[in-house]
Amino acid sequence: MKRKFLRSLAALAATAVAAPLAFAQAGYPDHPIRVIVPFPPGGSVDPIMRIVGPRLGEVLGQPLVIDNRAGANSAIGAGAVAKAPADGYTLLFTAGSTHVILPLQPPQSPDFLKDFAPIAGVARSSYMLAVHNSVPAKTLPEFIAYAKANPGKLNFASSGVGNLNHLAAELFNLRAGTKIVHVPYKGGAPAVQDLVAGRVQMMLTNVPTLQPQVDAGALRALAYTTARAGGPPVPLFAQYGLAELEGIEPYLVLLAPARTPDAVIAKLTAAMQKVLAMPDVIKSIETQLQAPYYLPAQQLGERLQADSARMKEVIDKGRIVLAP
């Protein structure tokens, strides 16, 4: 009898705890949501959140407050969200490609893939390889031949050690059989400045970063990972036997701290799907040389895991040392 009474008491206690939680989820959101962007204003990540953020707030009925927390290749901002309460009021908007690399870097803690719950894919753009005009090659095969004839004499720029454009160029070296030397910078802007000035000869990064310089005639584009939506035909890596580079594609994602309630994730995922179907949002994203890329939570989680495995393979096979 006593044991039965204790079980009943425990059940009542559990109900008392669960009821407010269920009520809170049903009323979510009831105050503003903070979205941390772990990159500085500008670039290719922040502008997309400033496009989708206001409309997402309209759909949810609460404003989204954008908080830029740059540093440590996005680890600072991501770490802040990982430690936040899992209630749906602190979210992370980041580059999925960068996010999957973080767990592979020293000290390999925390594991950012396990510390977050995927909400939705948001936007994507292709990568491009561009060279300074002083490089005599006019096509990608010519550039590969030129680099092979000058091993160790050409340099490629990246926005930092261990990020996606570094690893993409290292993968290019590995598959093309070239020995182009890595020159890391503290951010994409100084890297592009030195590329335009001819202090480095090559960069492999997202289209929004380099296309304006190509259009202005300051750089020469040799290959893209995918065709530009609505643009003229462009040479693709796949045409030259480098289709593997198509898998290294910049894409932007919305994440929540792990253990965020499923009901909250579902509401955010559905809201993002509505936003990315809005004609004005589509048009605005395309002005940033990107495209809407809606992925529901489960598919996004699967892609993050698959991309992490791919990046680990590149790092291991290329014997790339990632600095802390």
UniProtKB/TrEMBL annotation:
Under Gene3D superfamilies, the record lists:
Bordetella uptake gene, domain 1, Periplasmic binding protein-like II
**UniProt xrefs under InterPro entries:** BUG (IPR005064), Bug_dom1 (IPR042100)
In the record, which residues are listed under signal peptide?
Answer: 1-24
> Which one Pfam family would you cite for this protein?
TctC
- Which keywords accompany this UniProt record? Signal
Q: Which family does it belong to?
A: Belongs to the UPF0065 (bug) family.
**Name of the protein in its database record:** Tripartite tricarboxylate transporter substrate binding protein
